[in-house]
Each structure stands twice: as structure tokens, then as C-alpha cells.
Backbone:
């Protein structure tokens, strides 16, 4: 990247890093507040549901607007709206008027603004970063998310005591202001392409869906990444009860911290390296250690082994996700990226609520009973995976890892047989940037 491209991208990235970290603070604090007020796991789960729902309902409309209007303006408006929402909830907390239903509404609105912000942010990166640097930029985006995932709960726990929920929400509002200010500080062009005035929202979405249907490689990537997303949600659901089956909460905390460290290290490595030149093969090559590590998590009731293999699986995730994102940015025409990215996010997000539900049912109804003493498979299972509580969950990890490994092998074989076309890269070549960061025609 030249100096001006670097300055614009890093400014936007830093603003979004601060904004994402602030969102993590408030989401953790609000979920904790709801649980403390109600003592209900169901109510706590509704907070998570409210976070996912807007992405499913509003993503198509968000994609259309991102492609029709100035991406930078959409990012600014989304961050500003989220800041106002966080400030309003903070006012309710400080005046002692906050109710549980208002938390649900606040999380829904915050997620709705994020649904518009994310496709604008991702498609703007294509304007600011040359195709050969898309892998590195994707690694940086994933690193910012990893930093937020690791740091936000820790910071929220430290700050809740002295600042309270109201203080946390005010910090969140300020971080959204930082995100909007970063977008204001740079200019990177407006519309990606002219639009016909008579074109409807439905017509825009139909065009994006038709494009996606005509891209079998992207559809296969979408299916594979949906599987990885599902399995990632399964890890979050199953790792805690499995480790608690043979260790205490303190050991669990160390295991989770080591796993988060693997995610951060993977993101930093991809940011520095950028990944292999053949991104399609790279997605599936790194999918292989993800599957192997996922299998290995369940092999023995050892906190050390679980921590090491959980870190290994998390290390591979930024490469799978980042190289996948770089491929989409390089191959989808810029004029359609808002809609296509939004449709992709809607489809991938739709599997997130299924992961805890499906894996929870499998764990409780199928795999956990296999480790019971009266199970006909208990002896064989204990011989292979070790004895004790949680070994049924260990078998479930082995099964999920086997599925991930098989999917990566199939994808790699297909990628070798059908090389990545180089002509598609030119579609996403970013416009030249003037010294002030304004895009200029080539």
C-alpha cells in the first residue's frame, strides 16, 4: 500500500477496533445485568438472540443501501446512531429507570446499526487496499475482533465495580464516536457504480442473488464457511461443560485464555504475512489443522492437551475466515459488494443460533449418555477417550473435527482441480487515490 492508502485504511481500522471493543464492553455488561436482575438463563439467552436477529432481518436492505449510497456516510451514520442509543441507555441506568425489556430493545438497535455498518466497512476496504494486500487487511480486521473478544470481558469485569453499568455504556458511546470520527477523517469515494433511478430494492437484491447463483466457487466457500461458523459456535457451547467435567473453574479460565491467545496469534500472523498467493487453496489448507485440532480436543481429559489443541483450532480460524474474506473482496464486483456481502452475512449468521441448540441437544440426548456406565459403548469409549464425566462430549468433539477435516479435504481437492481464475482479481482493483484520499478515475 502506498502512503495515502495506508493512512486511510489504518485510520478506519483503528476507529473500528475502538468501536468493536466498546461494543464488547457493553454487551458483556448488559448481559450480566440481565442475568443478575432476573436469574434467568432464558432471559440471558434472549440478549444474544437480540444481537443476531437484526442481521437476519435487515442485512439485505443494508446491502442495497451500501451499494447505492456513500459507504463512508453509512459508516458515520451507523456509528452515530449506535452512540446515541448507548448514551440513552446510560441515561436510563443513571436515573434508575432501566428495565429488562429496554435492554433487549437497546441490543437490537445496536445490532441493527452494526448490520448497516459492517458491509459498508468491508466493501470500503476494497477501495483502500490493493488486491495483493487483501489478505493482510482481512487479518487485521479479524485481529481487531480477537482483541475485542479477549479484552472486553476482562475490562468490563474490572470497570463494572468502579464505574457501574452506566459508566460502561458511556464508554461504549464514546467508542462509537471514535469510529465515526475516524471515518470523517478520511475520504475514499462515494458510490461504487451508478444506479438506475427506477431500480427497486427487490431488483437490486435479485441481481445480487443471481450473481451469487452464477458463482459456484463462491457458493462452495459460503457453504464451507457456514460449517466453520457452526462448529465455532459449537466449540463455545461445549468446551466449558467438557472441561468442567474433569477440572475446576480456574483451570477453565486458563484454557479459554489460551484458546483466545491462539485466535489473536493467528490474526497477527495473517496481518503480517497476508497468507498464500492461492487464497482458495489456503482456505482449505488451514481448514485441515482446524479439523485435526478440533478432533484432538476431545481425545483425552487433559486440560493441557485441550488448551493446546483449542489454541491450534483458534489459530487456524483467522486464516480460514480472512482468506475467505479476501477472496470475496477480490472477486465480487465493487458495485455489488454491499449486497453480496450482506446476503452472505445473513446466510452465515443464520446458522449461529442453531449451533448452541443443535449441539446442546446432541450432547444431552445422544453423546453424553454414551459415557454412562450402563451404555453398551461405555467400555470402548472409555478405552479410547478416557473415563469420567464429559467423555461423551469428547466423542462429539472428535465427530465434529472429523466432519471439518472431511469438508476441508473435499474443498482442497476441488481447489486443486479447478484453479483460481486470475481475471477476477481485476474486478476489485481499487481506484487510484489522490493525496487527500479521494478516489479518482483510472
Residues:
Amino acid at each position: 500500500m502506498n502512503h495515502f492508502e495506508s493512512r486511510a485504511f489504518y485510520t478506519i481500522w483503528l476507529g473500528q477496533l475502538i468501536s468493536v471493543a466498546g461494543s464488547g464492553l457493553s454487551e458483556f455488561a448488559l448481559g450480566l445485568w440481565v442475568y443478575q436482575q432476573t436469574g434467568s438463563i432464558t432471559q440471558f439467552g434472549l440478549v444474544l438472540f437480540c444481537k443476531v436477529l437484526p442481521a437476519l432481518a435487515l442485512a439485505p436492505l443494508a446491502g442495497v443501501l451500501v451499494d447505492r449510497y456513500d459507504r463512508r456516510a453509512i459508516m458515520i451514520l451507523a456509528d452515530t446512531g449506535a452512540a446515541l442509543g448507548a448514551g440513552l441507555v446510560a441515561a436510563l441506568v443513571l436515573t434508575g429507570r432501566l428495565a429488562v425489556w429496554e435492554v433487549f430493545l437497546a441490543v437490537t438497535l445496536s445490532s441493527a446499526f452494526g448490520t448497516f455498518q459492517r458491509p459498508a466497512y468491508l466493501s470500503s476496504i476494497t477501495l483502500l487496499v490493493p488486491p495483493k494486500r487483501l489478505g493482510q487487511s482481512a487479518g487485521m480486521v479479524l485481529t481487531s475482533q480477537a482483541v475485542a473478544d479477549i479484552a472486553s470481558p476482562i475490562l468490563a469485569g474490572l470497570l463494572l465495580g468502579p464505574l457501574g453499568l452506566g459508566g460502561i455504556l458511556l464508554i461504549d458511546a464514546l467508542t462509537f464516536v471514535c469510529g465515526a470520527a475516524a471515518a470523517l477523517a478520511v475520504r475514499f469515494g462515494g458510490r461504487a457504480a451508478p444506479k438506475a433511478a427506477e431500480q427497486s430494492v427487490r431488483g437490486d437484491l435479485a441481481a445480487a442473488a443471481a450473481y451469487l447463483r452464477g458463482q459456484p466457487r463462491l457458493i462452495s466457500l459460503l457453504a464451507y464457511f457456514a460449517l466453520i461458523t457452526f462448529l465455532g459456535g459449537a466449540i463455545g457451547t461445549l468446551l466449558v461443560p467438557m472441561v468442567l467435567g474433569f477440572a475446576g473453574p480456574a483451570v477453565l479460565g486458563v484454557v479459554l485464555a489460551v484458546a483466545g491467545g491462539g485466535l489473536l496469534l493467528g490474526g497477527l500472523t495473517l496481518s503480517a504475512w497476508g497468507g498464500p498467493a492461492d487464497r482458495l487453496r489456503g482456505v482449505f489448507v488451514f481448514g485441515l489443522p482446524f479439523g485435526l485440532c478440533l478432533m484432538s480436543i476431545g481425545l483425552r481429559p487433559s486440560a493441557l492437551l485441550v488448551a493446546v489443541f483449542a489454541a491450534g483450532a483458534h489459530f487456524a480460524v483467522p486464516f480460514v475466515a480472512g482468506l475467505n474474506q479476501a477472496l470475496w473482496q477480490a472477486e465480487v464486483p465493487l458495485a455489488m459488494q454491499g449486497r453480496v456481502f450482506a446476503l452472505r452475512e445473513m446466510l452465515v449468521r443464520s446458522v449461529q443460533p442453531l449451533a448452541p441448540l443443535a449441539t446442546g441437544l446432541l450432547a444431552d440426548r445422544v453423546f453424553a449418555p454414551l459415557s454412562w456406565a450402563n451404555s453398551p459403548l461405555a467400555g470402548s469409549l472409555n478405552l479410547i477417550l478416557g473415563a469420567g464425566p464429559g467423555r461423551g462430549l469428547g466423542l462429539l468433539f472428535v465427530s465434529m473435527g472429523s466432519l471439518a477435516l472431511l469438508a476441508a479435504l473435499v474443498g482442497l481437492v476441488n481447489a486443486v482441480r479447478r484453479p483460481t481464475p486470475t481475471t477476477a482479481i481485476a474486478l476489485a482493483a481499487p481506484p487510484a487515490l489522490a493525496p487527500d484520499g479521494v478516489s479518482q478515475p483510472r
In short: The radius of gyration is 22 Å. The first helix runs from residue 3 to 38. Strands lie at 432-433, 439-440.
